[in-house]
Amino acid sequence: MQKVRDDQDLAAATELARAAAVTEAEADYVGAHLGMAMEDERLATHLFTCLHPGYVGWRWAVTVARAPEQTEVTVCDVVLLPGPTALVAPAWVPWSERVLPGDLGVGDVLVTGADDLRLIAGLTGEDDLETAASASPLTGFWELGLGRVRVLSVVGRDEAAERWYEGEMGPAAAMARSSTNSCSTCGFLLPIGGPLGQMFGVCANLIAPADGHVVSMNYGCGGHSEVILDPVAARAENATDELGWDHLDLTEPDLPDDGQVPGDLTGAGISDETLLAAGSVLEVADATDAADEADAGDSDPPALDTQLGVEEGQGDTDK
After folding, report:
1. What share of residues in the chain are helix, strand, coil (percent, to 5)?
2. Running DSSP on this structure, what letter comes out for residue 140?
3. If you compute the radius of gyration of the chain from its CA atoms, what whole number of angstroms results?
4. 110 plus 216 within the same structural domain
5. 144 and 181 co-located in one domain
6. Residues 217-233, buried b or exposed e (16+ Cβ, 10 A)?
7. Same domain (yes/no): 101, 222
8. CB atoms within 10 A of CB 160
9. Is residue 171 part of a domain?
10. How many domains does the chain have?
């Protein structure tokens, strides 16, 4: 890639870049000028030290530019970028790479990818399948003891089978009880030969807690090879009708032909009995109000007249 030549006009715009950084942050957080880097022709970035205590090692990056055959410089962008010694978050690691052996616990489910290199498509023709016994080295004359002084007896074999079946890799284990899939249908199961091959196999899943151990066929864990994610249906996008329209009538409504005015009870479909009852209530209320007013007006004058009569009587007596 051809190196971009330095631009003198952009290099001289240090104070313009500093002013832009001060506007974005504060003057106390913008430090010394660290230099300028040409991004493209007539496009450069000035770097300033960030003095904010929460961003030690970060730098203010102010990008400036100018138009062709012009000397006026303008500010394009102001951002805060980490420097070589800045404290930043570690690089993102997918969950499939973060999971380590021993992380799978009781009740956990680990999804197996469809492109897992540890699994291949199985054969469907029974005639093409080899039995587990024929694939074992302990067959034929080997089982008779050639190369070994003694071989496992029936008693020793049955004791081992019982011990494995009732152990941590058997169907009674907590891991097996929490799993919905068994090892008999798992692609990570390695078959073993001989009579024990009908009940046991060897787990070859690196993430599974039983990796490298003999497991019973009805044992299970969350690392089953057929635990896969269902394909997510594409979400439909909202469709906006930009061509259609709805008619909206903004004209004032006309009064009905019978001349009925809103709020008038006449002709509103109310029965005569209802109107009569309402009128009676109003008449009773009016009568009650009139009686109250009369009582209120006559309460004081009688007492005054009585007092005046008494005083006149006393005057006549004195005469």
Report:
1. 30, 15, 55
2. G
3. 49
4. yes
5. yes
6. bebbbbbbbebeeeeee
7. yes
8. 14
9. yes
10. 2
216 and 117 housed in the same domain: yes
Helices (H), 37-150: 95-98
Residue 74 inside a domain? The answer is: yes
Q: Mark whether 215 and 134 lie in a shared domain.
A: yes
Q: One digit per residue, pLDDT tens: the chain, 319 residues?
A: 567 888 888 989 999 999 999 998 888 999 999 999 999 889 999 999 999 999 999 999 999 999 988 889 999 999 999 999 998 888 888 877 888 777 888 878 777 777 777 666 665 555 444 554 454 444 444 444 456 666 677 888 888 899 999 999 999 999 989 888 899 889 999 998 878 888 999 999 988 888 999 999 999 998 888 887 776 666 767 777 767 777 777 777 766 665 555 555 555 555 555 555 555 544 545 555 555 555 555 545 544 454 445 455 555 544 4
The CB density around residue 115, as the number of other CB atoms within 10 Å, is 6
279 assigned to some structural domain: no
Where are the alpha helices (H) located in the chain, listed in sequence order? 8-11, 14-24, 95-98, 154-165, 174-177, 272-298, 301-318
Residue 154 amino acid letter: V
Q: Which of 221, 194, 216, 219 is nearest to 206 (CA)?
A: 221
Give the structural domain span for 18: 8-82
125-139 burial, b for 16+ CB within 10 Å, e for fewer? Answer: eeeeeeebbeebeee
Of 231, 251, 286, the last residue of a domain is: 231
Query: Does 18 lie in the same domain as 99?
Result: no
Structure tokens at 92: 């993102």
- Write the Ramachandran bin of 107: left for phi over 0, alpha for psi from -120 to 50, otherwise beta: left
Tell me if the pTM is above 0.85: no
Q: Which of 205, 231, 257 is the last residue of a domain?
A: 231
**Tokens 């770097």 belong to residue:** 47
